[in-house]
């Protein structure tokens, strides 16, 4: 599966969707590994107002039990051993990729249609998170059937573009506003989106 290419500039007005994936395989280069998804979470913001929607619009799919579980490599196993509560949150309430993709589509598309806005998907690292989300979108053929415009964005380069700074400075600004993450997909998505918005107000 080819991970969607990210673009730098966000649409002038859009529904900004910060998303996060948790997985049971960790790669040194943060690349996507098909079949390793544990959970996907997302949080929605209005752009360019940078206004977050209520936390009720921060959702997580739960454990994607139908995607074959791969045996964890040592780095992933060590990570989840250090975060047992987060691992339980990522593996409770198993659902299928089709159910997960449908839940994402229903939530995000309904907001985009209500406000008549395109959707901008943003995460970091892009190659990791985008692969997991795109696989769920493919499970329900969302990319082919959606009548809403979608763009994909790598958080740090997009922040650098809109702030007019280097990627090194953008990463420093983002990190300054990012609290310790609980490694629970919906919570991480919300905190990541808030940090992105606040870094642009620095």
Q: Major sheet: size, sense and barrel closure?
A: 6 strands, mixed
Query: CATH homologous superfamily?
Result: Ribonuclease H-like superfamily/Ribonuclease H
Percentage of β-strand residues: 15-25%
Summed up, the domain count is 1
Question: Gap between N and C termini, in Å?
Answer: 37 Å
> What value does the Rg take, in angstroms?
16 Å
CATH top level assignment: Alpha Beta
Secondary structure tally, helices: 8
CATH topology name, in short, is Nucleotidyltransferase, domain 5
Mean pLDDT: 87
Question: Any idea what the shape is?
Answer: globular
Helix content: 40-55%
Poorly predicted regions are none
Order of helix and strand elements from N to C terminus: EEEEHHHEHHEHHH
- Write the CATH architecture name: 2-Layer Sandwich
Derived from helix and strand composition plus strand pairing, the structural class reads: alpha/beta
Total strands: the figure is 6
What's a quick, concise take on this entry?
This protein is an alpha/beta fold and 202 residues long.
Write up this protein:
The chain is an alpha/beta fold and 202 residues long. The chain has one domain (14-199): Nucleotidyltransferase, domain 5 (2-Layer Sandwich). It is 44% helix and 17% strand. The protein contains 8 helices and 6 strands. It has helices spanning 74-82, 84-91, 97-115, 126-139, 142-145, 155-163, 167-177, 185-199, and strands spanning 14-23, 37-47, 51-52, 59-60, 119-123, 150-154. Strands 1, 2, 3, 4, 5 and 6 form a 6-stranded mixed β-sheet that branches. Helix 7 packs across helix 8 (185-199). The protein is globular and about 40 Å long. The model has no long low-confidence stretch (mean pLDDT 87).
């Amino acid at each position: 599966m080819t991970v969607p290419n990210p673009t730098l500039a966000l649409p002038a007005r859009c529904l900004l969707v910060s998303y996060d994936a948790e997985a049971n395989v960790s790669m040194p280069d943060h690349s996507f590994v098909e079949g390793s998804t544990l959970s996907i979470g997302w949080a929605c913001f209005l752009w360019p107002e940078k206004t977050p929607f209520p936390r009720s619009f921060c959702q997580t799919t739960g454990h994607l039990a139908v995607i074959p579980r791969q045996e964890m490599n040592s780095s992933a196993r060590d990570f989840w051993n250090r975060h047992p509560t987060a691992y339980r949150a990522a593996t409770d309430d198993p659902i299928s990729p089709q159910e997960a993709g449908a839940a994402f589509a229903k939530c995000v598309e309904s907001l985009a249609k209500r406000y008549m806005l395109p959707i901008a998907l943003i995460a970091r690292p892009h190659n990791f998170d985008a692969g997991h989300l795109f696989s769920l979108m493919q499970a329900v053929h969302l990319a082919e059937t959606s009548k809403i415009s979608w763009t994909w964005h790598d958080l740090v380069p997009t922040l650098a573009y809109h702030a007019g700074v280097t990627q090194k400075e953008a990463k420093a600004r983002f990190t300054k506003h990012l609290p310790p993450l609980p490694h629970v997909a919906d919570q991480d998505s919300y905190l990541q989106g808030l940090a992105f918005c606040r870094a642009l107000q620095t």
